[in-house]
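Reference record
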Amino acid sequence: VVKQTADSILVPIDQFDNILAFKIAGDSLVGMLKKQDGSGKPLVVNATRGNPYRFKPNGKNAVADFSGKYDVTFKSPTGKDENAVGLFKQNGNKITGTFLRVTGDSRYLEGIVEGNDFYLSSFIGSSPSYYKGSFSKDGTITGETVSARGNTPFTGKQNQNAALPDAYKLTFLKDGYKTLDFSFPDVNGKKVSLSDEKFKNKVVILTITGTWCPNCVDEASFIAPWYKKNRSRGVEVIGIHYERQLDSAYVRKALTRFRDKFDIQYDQVIAGTPDKKIVAESLPALNNFISFPTTIIINKKGEVAQIHTGYSGPATGKYYTDFVKEFNTEIDALLKE
């Protein structure tokens, strides 16, 4: 709910525990994006009424149509470069797209192409995303992501066969394990375990998630209505949350907001903070942990049938529809066992 008092405007972004705080200055808003509890470093934000564009055009036409799929490498100062697939669709000067990573996608990016240069951005309430760079007629791409944490350069090459590693083969159980064993509390302190009567002889979907995670938000927007439609078939879902703070008041607030936003009717439990090492320690049967979210499907015998690392949201187009199809196919097969 947007609140205005005198010359101030407050826009709570509850999903990410942020708030936009503005002062009205004529036709402009001047302020900051900050955490609701005052922690962290605020980002300066300015807004101007009536601007019909995200990036101010200079009247220069794009020299070519750079639509397509690209092999992309994001450079890391630690030497751990990250491979991605860039998906772009251009119409004149307008360009939309996303970067598909093992951990998930960059969601909906939108911007412009002028000459060879491109500018893309998005903002959903967490932190803004901003990408800029250049295309070349030989099919290469160079650029950088710009953020409050610093800039990350990337390079790439157009390749219609660009692909990531198989998301079903990145996370798996250690040798000798077939099942997962855990007992985590919900917001009321009630312990939830796969050995509970509720889950016996059911196909169970575990989603390793967090309310702070944009790709987890995309997953919840799919799995919550899917569960309501399919629960009568003999399936259950448990959202295993790793949250930035673990005090009871914060966790209750964060999970309640998440539940209300997506009308979540399945179990939500709290397992720790969003540290990959902590996730691996709390679920020791896993060989490793790579990404929020990670989706684990359990068969009627209580055995792990499938693990999917990351999440390809609706911004990825065919990748998303393929995931939904594969997910439903797997569930249908397990229900028939």
